[in-house]
Amino acid sequence: MSYIKPIVNNLVKKYNTNDPFELADYLNVTIKYWNFPLEIKGIYQYEKRNKFIYLNKHLSHHEKLYVCGHELGHAILHTKINCTFLKHHTLFSTNKFENEANLFCSYLLISDETLQQFSSYPLEQIAAIFCIPIEFLLIR
After folding, report:
1. Domain 4-138 class?
2. What is the helix (H) or strand (E) element at residue 14, kind and residue range?
3. What would the pLDDT profile of 12-62 be if each residue is shown by its tens digit?
């Protein structure tokens, strides 16, 4: 999974943003909001050379950021594989694709430099500060 960090760094540098919504726009990934059951946070879909991210419209602002980042990871790393992001399964999944998308999102939302600035903080506190699941930090 060492190839993921350079991909994220190149995207952030090229488009001058780490915002998953802005990156999706630059990369022609369509984002739509859907009335999913609460256990489904988001879905990535590839259909006829088009990329779609569907986000649960009931998510908080911070949840939308990390779910979009996760699904964008699928769009970039696993372009032709349709994936779902489930509340109770994905964050703890041993599934290679889900772990890679989580790592992509982690690098996207928190740079190494930022993480270094908070290195004296417990991981739980860093996760709370950045409003992301602690699992995104544990995989780094």
Report:
1. mainly alpha
2. helix 4-15
3. 999 999 999 999 999 999 999 999 998 899 999 999 999 999 999 999 999
Amino acid identity, position 85: F
pTM, entire model: 0.88
Six token digits for residue 11: 């995207």
Instruction: For 81-105, write each residue's pLDDT tens digit.
Output: 876 544 444 454 448 888 999 999 9
Domains of the chain by residue range: 4-138
Q: 102 to each of 48, 49, 60, 116, 140, how far by Cα in Å? A: 25, 23, 18, 19, 10
For residues 132 and 66, the answer to whether their CB atoms sit within 8 Å is: yes
Quote the CA–CA distance of 24 and 1 in Å, as a whole number: 22
C-alpha to C-alpha distance for 115 and 122, rounded to whole angstroms: 11
Sheet holding 83-86, edge to edge: 29-34, 50-56, 40-47, 83-86
Structure token pair of residue 23: 């990156």
Residue 140 CA to residue 125 CA, distance in Å, equals 16
CA gap 20, 78 in Å, rounded: 16
